[in-house]
Amino acid sequence: MSTNPIGVIDSGVGGLTILKRLTQAFPNEAFIYFGDTKNAPYGEKDIPELKVLTEKMIRFMEEKHVKALVIACNTITASGVLKSISTTIPHIIEIIEPTVQTALISSTSQHFVLLATDVTIKSGLYQRLLKEHVPQATIETYSLPELVRLAEKAEFTSPVAEKVIKQVALTLPEGSTVVLGCTHYPFFTPYFKKHLGKTIRMVDSSQAVTHYLKNILSTKASDNTAGSIEYYVSGNTTLFQDVIAFSLD
Ligand code: DGL
C-alpha cells in the first residue's frame, strides 16, 4: 500500500475528463492534476517544444513523488517525446494503446473514425495500432481544434462546437466506431450523442485508462484513506475553476 499520489497531466483542461473517472474508480487515492493551460493547445506545436513542456510537467510530478503518472494527453503520447525523457516515476500510463484496445472491443465494423489533434493524426500511431489488429480497417481522421479552444475557455454549450460536430457526424457511415482521440473532446459528448447516428459507437479514453491503471497499480491506498485532488495550472485559474465545476458535475 502506498499513500503517494497519482499524477495526471495534460496540455490543459482535457485531462479532467480522465481524472473524473479515475477519482470515481479510486476513491481512496490522492490525485495531483497539472494542466499546462498557459501553453495549450499542444495539438499544433512542434515536437521539440512538446518535449520541453512535457519534461517540465514530469519533473514537477517527480518532486511530488507520484507513484504513477497518467499522461492524459494523446498529443504527448503520439508525439513520441516520452521515449527521450528519463524519469524516476515508477509507472507512466499512456492512453493511446488502452484506447485502441477499447475501440477494437467496441467496434462492430472495420470502419474507424479518429477525432484527434493534428499532431496525433500526423503521428499515425492510432492508425498503425488499429491496422495491426484489423489489417483491413479503414480509418478516417478529423482534427477539431475548435473544441480544444472552446474547452479551454470553459465554453461547453457553444453553437460553434455543435456545428463542428454536426458537420463531421453527417459524413460518417452507419456502424462506424468513433474514437475521441483527444481528451478535450469528451466535454462535448452531449453534442456527439445528439448528432452521431444510432449505429455509431463512440469510444473515449477514460474507461480504458482507468481499467489499465487498475491492472498495473501495485501499491494502492488503503480502503480507509480519504481520497483527495490537488490541482495545478500554469495559466488562468478562474477559467480552470469553471471547468472543474463543469467537469465534476
Ligand atoms: N488534450 C490533448 C490530447 O488529448 C491535447 C489537446 C491540445 O492541447 O491541443 O491530445
Question: Which whole number gives the mean pLDDT?
Answer: 95
Strand coverage percent: 15-25%
User: How much helix, percentage-wise, in residues?
Assistant: 40-55%
Silhouette = globular
Instruction: Summarize the biggest pleated sheet.
Output: 5 strands, parallel
User: Structural class of the secondary elements?
Assistant: alpha/beta
Q: What is the strand arrangement across the widest sheet?
A: 4-3-1-2-9
Could you walk me through the main structural features you see in this protein, from its secondary elements to its overall organization?
- The protein has 249 residues and is an alpha/beta fold.
- The chain has helices spanning 16-25, 47-63, 74-79, 96-106, 118-123, 125-133, 145-152, 159-171, 189-195, 205-216, 237-247; strands at residues 6-10, 30-35, 68-71, 91-94, 111-115, 138-142, 177-180, 201-203, 228-233.
- The strands form two sheets. A five-stranded parallel β-sheet has the order 4-3-1-2-9, with helices on both faces. Strands 6-5-7-8 form a four-stranded parallel β-sheet, covered by helices on one side.
- Helix 9 (189-195) links the parallel strand 7 and strand 8 (201-203).
- Helix 4 packs across helix 6 and helix 4 packs across helix 10 (205-216).
- The chain is globular, with a radius of gyration of 17 Å.
- The model has no long low-confidence stretch (mean pLDDT 95).
- Residues 10-12, 14, 40-43, 73-75, 117, 120, 148, 182-184 line the site of D-glutamic acid.
